[in-house]
Specification:
The chain has about 250 residues and is an alpha/beta fold. It contains 8 helices and 9 strands. Helix 2 links the parallel strand 2 and strand 3. Helix 1 packs across helix 8. The termini are far apart. The mean pLDDT is about 95. The protein binds 2-hydroxyethylsulfonic acid (8X3). This is NADP-dependent 3-hydroxy acid dehydrogenase YdfG.
Length: about 250
């Protein structure tokens, strides 16, 4: 059975991806919150073999130590899903808190680079594998009050394209997934726990749910070996581009 390594599995898209891939992969579940990881481990252990790995993608040493600490059989990683990422704040560049801006670069860009650099040597040893990066429509279109979040996701888009080229002769495939509006803890985190403001983002139309994106990830990684799904953008039906929605209220 193949092994998938998924970051950010304690909630949202990462958790849903683990739940879907559990049917045909052994899973390395990564996250910062050990208690949440244990919960998911208990749930999925009934279906497949699980190895939980607690680390913060922002901490370079922690990332490399965690990946290198994997028992030998778990180091044969076939699929890496770089899902960990979030948004902090939604305000103009001049008003944004510098700590928030830095956090988005540290998690969404540097964290993805650390994890990929740590896992890739094991994939290269096997002459094959698949990296799935979670970008966003925000990586393709910049919106007001989101300069640095959008920049962080534009970086993910570029890294996906560059990795695909650099790994062309290695047998490793790269998929970039760009979701639009998905109702998860994303907006609650963005608005620092303000659930009312967060739920307004998804009011008046049917947003995507985490499982919709997880299905796309499963579709990409379960293709025949010669098929490389390069880039997928997924919107709810009510979304026309990054910022245009039909809302019923
Ligand atoms: C999440 C989608 O458009 O709310 O990355 O930023 S968006």
């Amino acid at each position: 059975m193949k092994t998938a390594f998924i970051t950010g599995t304690t909630s949202g898209i990462g958790k849903a991806t683990a739940q879907i891939l559990a049917s045909n992969y052994r899973l390395i579940l990564c996250g910062r919150r050990a208690d949440k990881l244990v919960e998911l481990q208990k749930e999925l252990e009934e279906i497949t073999e699980i190895y939980p790995l607690v680390f913060d993608v922002r901490n370079k040493v922690e990332v490399f130590d965690a990946v290198n600490s994997l028992p030998e059989k778990w180091k044969a990683i076939d699929v890496l899903v770089n899902n960990a990422g979030n948004a902090h704040g939604l305000s103009s560049f001049q008003e944004a808190d510098l700590n928030d801006l830095e956090a988005m670069i540290d998690i969404n860009v540097k964290g993805l680079i650390y994890v990929t650099k740590a896992v890739l040597p094991y994939m290269l040893k096997q002459n094959g594998g698949h990296i799935v990066n979670l970008s966003s429509i925000a990586g393709k279109e910049t919106y007001a009050n989101g300069a640095v979040y959008c920049a962080s996701k534009a970086a993910v888009e570029s890294i996906s394209k560059g990795l695909r080229l650099d790994l062309l002769h290695s047998g490793i495939k790269v998929t970039n997934i760009a979701p639009g509006a998905v109702e998860t803890e994303f907006s609650v985190v963005r608005f620092k726990g303000d659930k009312q403001r967060a739920s307004k983002v998804y009011e008046g139309y049917e947003p995507l749910i985490a499982q919709d994106i997880a299905q796309a990830i499963a579709y990409a990684v379960n293709q025949p070996e010669y098929v490389q799904i390069a880039d997928v953008t997924i919107f709810p039906k009510a979304q026309g581009n990054g910022t245009t929605f039909v809302k019923k209220i």
